[in-house]
Structures are given as structure tokens and as C-alpha cells.
């Protein structure tokens, strides 16, 4: 008997492929915290970093240690199998995250299936895995992604039909870990707590069990952090004190309350951003007693009240978007007269958005992070096969703030940075057999005579670039030439 695959099985198989490829190509980090607050912190445990190497957050003891310790454990296992290359190690971190994401999303979608019409189930499944920015976010080994995934799992368990004390103990434990990965999820947890009391009217004994589970993990986090920082410390309080009471976060920029609306429109690409914002509004209005409403609304409102805003702060609730979109269309838009009268036009719009989603998915998933700079750094790493490494840099290059090479984890120990702006070529001797010479230049600088001389004299060839050549003219037009780079090597 031949086994017939169901539709969802094809989706799961495709998700494994897409998420694997995204984990493979998505070299680098979306935000510096993804690297410096996790991997560099983990370096304290294996001796690759010292406290003086770390950013100010270490001294103030505001970062939870659970993720750096998890990173250290994973790296030790990899070292046991002689996998020590930094790019392989970070790929494994992303790959683990991708697998965890797929498993949790499968569980969440199955838990939500009963709330949707069967005819909309396939659309929900497709969006849950392949809405263009989700694979990119769901493979990140960041606090935002891991906290969000664990929170998504806790919501899925609550929505599950089982309703015993063991279930609520498990929920408390999982939400506790979600909180340890990122403290700001507390705003959504508070919403769940209120929903259980006032909407679900759950038994007090189950809420107590839920709370005990959460507090146990909170206490575990206190012990882990105290061990990591070598003194008794409560990083949750430290974080609140530094970023809220002292308002340290505002030093990194402030913006008005409505800025998250603009960020959603910009970062999700405007057509998708409009749909997301519109469907969230419709969903909340129509489903004001929904658990998801009670989770995301406090989270969004309180984040909007905090002065410092970044799009990544919304990542912990991003995986609810597919359900919200489909549910809002099902409950509201599909029932509107203008929709019924213009089905053919709207169908064509859906096809257009589907095509755009594929292009955006490819752009976000199958290239290095951070304008492609991480890809250049990886290329340098694998070109570094000689005793000495000369890295020629131009005026648009800033190794301390723009490049992974400055971190202990990615650092090329034999690297010598040579600033072309102050370079006299006649004073430099190049030992071809002993030295690998590479040049990093922006498209602003590539036309300068001195750079052309270096490329010609050293017989350098182009190795890679942060964006395709056909887009260079566009980047110059919009004044982004100092942010688009090329790598040459002899």
C-alpha cells in the first residue's frame, strides 16, 4: 500500500528545506545583541573572552545567563566532534533554532485548527511557515526569537483541550523559560494571567500551580545568573533598574508612541504591513476575549509607551500574525459586501502578493545578514590560509563597529589592518608566499586611483560583494555607496 502524503506533510517537508537553507545562508546577526550578548558572553566560560572584552551590560549584570550557558554547552559538544570553525558553530545554532521553530509552529497550528474554517486551514499553514520574514526571524539564535517560540508553545498548550493541573504546571515552566530568555515577554505573560482569571475563569488551584511553575524557573534563573556573574545577583531587577529607572535604553534613541506602526510598515514591506496592521485591528475588535488578544495587546501597548523602540522587540509575538490575518479575513473581510462584489480583483491582488512574498522570502532568507557584510567576513576567514593576513581598508570601513572581525569569536588572530588613506605603497613589501592580501572597499571608493593601483599592483581579483553589480548604480543614486562593499584578494 502506497502512503499518500497529506497537504500539511508537504508543507512540513518544504519548511524543513527552506528553514535549513535560511539557517545556512543567514550568516551574521540581525542585531549586535544577537552576537555580543550571547556568543561573546559564552566566551567567558571557555576562556576566549574576559570581562574587559564585554560590553557595559556585563558590568551592570543586566543580561540573563541562560542563553550564553546554552551556547557554551552546544559549542562544547561540537568541540568534542572537532567542529571548531566559528561559522560552522553559529550555523549549528541557527539550525537548532530552525528545528525548534518548525516543531513549535506545527504544534501551534494544530492547536489553532479548531478555530478556523477547514477551507482556510491551508492558507494559515502556508503563512505560518512562509510569510516572507518568518523563516529569517525563526532561525535567529537571539533572545527575541527563543523567548517568542517558547511563548508560542505555551499558548498552544493552553489552547489544547486537556485541562488538568499537570498542564498548568508545564505552562508555568515553559513561560518561565520564555521570560528568562527575554524579560519583556512579561507584558504578554501578564495578559495571559489576566485572561485565565477574568475570561477563562480558571480554577484558582490551577492558576496557583501555573504561578508556582513560573516562580520555580525564575528562582532557577536567579541561581544560574548568580553562578555566571560570580555573586548573588537578580538580573531581572538589574535590567528594570538600569533601563527603566535610570532610562539607560533611551541613550540608544527615542521615538514617539506610534513608531512601531511605522516600523511594521517599513520592515514588513508596505503592502504586507498594511494587511498586518489592518487585520490586527479587525481581529482585536472581533475577538476581544481571545487569549491571543489578551497576550499581544498589553505587549504592544507597553512597548509603545517605552521611549526606545526597535522592530526586533516585536519578534516575540510575530508568529501570531498568520493566525490573526486568516482569522480576521474569515470573521470580517470575507463577509463584507465590497469583498463579495470585487472577488476577481481581490483574487488578482492575492496572486500579486503571493509572487512578491516569494521574492521577499528569497531576498531575506538566502543571503548573509547585515547588508551582506557578514558574507564578506566569512570569505576572509576561508581565504586566511597563510601565516599573515593583510586587510586593506578604506575610509568607509570601520572595523570596530561594522564588522564581525573585531569580536573575539570571529577574530582572525594574524590579521593586520592597513588603512589605505594613510598608506604609501612604496613602503609596503608584499610577500606572496607568506601573506594573504585582501581589500575591502565600498562602491564609493572603488573608482579612486590609489585603490585601482593596489588592485593592479597586487593582481587582485574580486571575490564577493554585498549586493549584485546591477544594483550598484541604484545605491549610488540613493546615497548608500558607503554601505555597499566589495572584497578583493590576491
From TrEMBL:
Keywords on record: Endoplasmic reticulum, Glycosyltransferase, Membrane, Transferase, Transmembrane, Transmembrane helix
Location(s) in or outside the cell: Endomembrane system; Endoplasmic reticulum membrane
An MF annotation (GO) of this entry: mannosyltransferase activity
Annotated GO CC locations: endomembrane system
Main location: membrane
Highest taxon above the source species: Bacteria
Membrane topology: Multi-pass membrane protein
Pfam short name (any one): Glyco_transf_22
Transmembrane intervals: 12-30, 91-109, 121-139, 168-195, 207-229, 257-284, 291-307, 313-333, 345-366
Family annotation (PANTHER family): GLYCOSYLTRANSFERASE
The protein's name in its UniProt record: Mannosyltransferase
Taxonomy of the source species: Bacteria, Pseudomonadati, Bacteroidota, Flavobacteriia, Flavobacteriales
Amino acid at each position: 500500500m502506497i502512503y499518500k502524503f497529506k497537504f500539511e506533510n508537504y508543507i512540513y517537508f518544504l519548511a524543513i528545506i527552506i528553514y535549513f537553507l535560511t539557517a545556512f545562508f543567514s550568516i551574521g546577526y540581525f542585531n549586535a545583541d544577537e552576537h555580543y550578548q550571547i556568543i561573546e558572553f559564552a566566551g567567558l566560560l571557555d576562556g576566549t573572552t574576559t570581562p574587559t572584552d564585554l560590553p557595559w551590560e556585563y558590568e551592570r549584570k543586566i543580561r540573563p545567563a541562560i542563553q550564553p550557558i546554552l551556547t557554551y554547552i552546544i559549542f562544547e559538544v561540537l568541540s568534542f566532534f572537532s567542529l571548531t570553525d566559528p561559522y560552522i558553530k553559529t550555523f549549528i545554532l541557527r539550525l537548532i533554532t530552525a528545528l525548534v521553530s518548525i516543531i513549535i509552529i506545527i504544534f501551534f497550528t494544530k492547536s489553532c485548527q479548531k478555530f478556523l474554517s477547514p477551507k482556510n486551514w491551508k492558507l494559515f499553514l502556508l503563512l505560518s511557515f512562509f510569510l516572507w520574514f518568518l523563516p529569517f526571524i525563526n532561525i535567529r539564535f537571539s533572545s527575541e526569537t527563543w523567548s517568542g517560540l517558547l511563548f508560542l508553545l505555551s499558548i498552544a498548550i493552553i489552547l489544547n483541550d486537556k485541562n488538568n493541573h499537570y498542564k498548568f504546571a508545564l505552562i508555568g515552566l515553559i513561560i518561565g523559560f520564555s521570560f528568562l530568555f527575554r524579560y519583556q515577554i512579561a507584558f504578554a505573560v501578564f495578559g495571559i494571567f489576566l485572561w485565565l482569571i477574568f475570561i477563562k475563569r480558571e480554577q484558582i488551584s490551577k492558576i496557583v500551580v501555573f504561578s508556582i511553575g513560573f516562580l520555580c524557573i525564575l528562582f532557577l534563573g536567579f541561581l544560574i545568573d548568580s553562578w555566571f556573574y560570580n555573586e548573588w545577583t537578580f538580573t531581572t531587577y538589574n535590567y528594570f533598574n538600569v533601563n527603566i529607572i535610570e532610562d539607560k535604553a533611551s541613550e540608544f534613541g527615542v521615538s514617539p508612541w506610534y513608531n512601531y506602526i511605522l516600523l511594521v510598515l517599513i520592515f514588513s514591506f508596505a503592502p504586507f504591513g498594511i494587511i498586518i496592521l489592518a487585520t490586527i485591528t479587525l481581529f482585536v475588535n472581533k475577538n476581544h476575549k481571545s487569549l491571543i488578544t489578551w497576550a499581544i495587546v498589553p505587549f504592544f501597548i507597553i512597548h509603545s509607551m517605552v521611549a526606545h523602540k526597535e522592530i526586533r522587540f516585536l519578534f516575540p509575538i510575530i508568529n501570531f500574525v498568520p493566525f490573526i490575518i486568516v482569522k480576521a479575513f474569515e470573521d470580517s473581510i470575507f463577509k463584507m459586501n465590497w469583498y463579495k462584489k470585487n472577488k476577481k480583483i481581490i483574487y488578482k491582488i492575492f496572486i500579486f502578493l503571493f509572487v512578491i512574498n516569494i521574492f521577499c522570502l528569497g531576498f531575506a532568507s538566502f543571503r548573509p545578514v547585515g547588508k551582506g557584510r557578514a558574507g564578506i567576513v566569512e570569505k576572509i576567514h576561508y581565504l586566511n590560509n597563510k601565516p599573515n593576513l593583510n586587510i586593506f581598508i578604506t575610509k568607509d570601513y570601520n572595523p570596530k563597529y561594522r564588522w564581525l572581525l573585531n569580536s573575539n569569536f570571529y577574530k582572525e588572530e594574524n590579521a593586520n589592518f592597513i588603512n589605505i588613506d594613510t598608506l604609501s605603497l612604496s613602503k609596503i613589501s608584499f610577500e606572496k608566499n607568506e601573506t594573504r592580501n585582501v581589500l575591502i572597499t565600498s562602491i564609493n571608493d572603488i573608482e579612486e586611483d590609489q585603490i585601482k593601483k593596489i588592485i593592479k599592483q597586487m593582481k587582485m581579483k574580486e571575490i564577493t560583494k554585498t549586493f549584485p553589480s546591477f544594483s550598484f548604480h541604484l545605491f549610488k543614486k540613493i546615497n548608500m555607496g558607503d554601505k555597499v562593499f566589495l572584497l578583493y584578494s590576491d
